[in-house]
Amino acid sequence: MNCPHCQAACEDGQAYCGRCGQALMTESDVSNARKPMGVVKPVFIHWLFLLRLVPKALQFSIIIGGITGFLSLGYMAFFTNHINLWPPFIYPFFMAFVAFLGIGWMIKLRNYQETKYLFFSDHLEYYDGFWNIERKDIRYRNITQIDLHRSVIQRIYGIGTLRMTVPGYANAVALADLKDPERVFHQLQQYVNQASSHLGR
Question: Given 4, 17, 24, 73, which is the most exposed site by the fewest CB atoms within 10 A?
Answer without folding.
Answer: 4
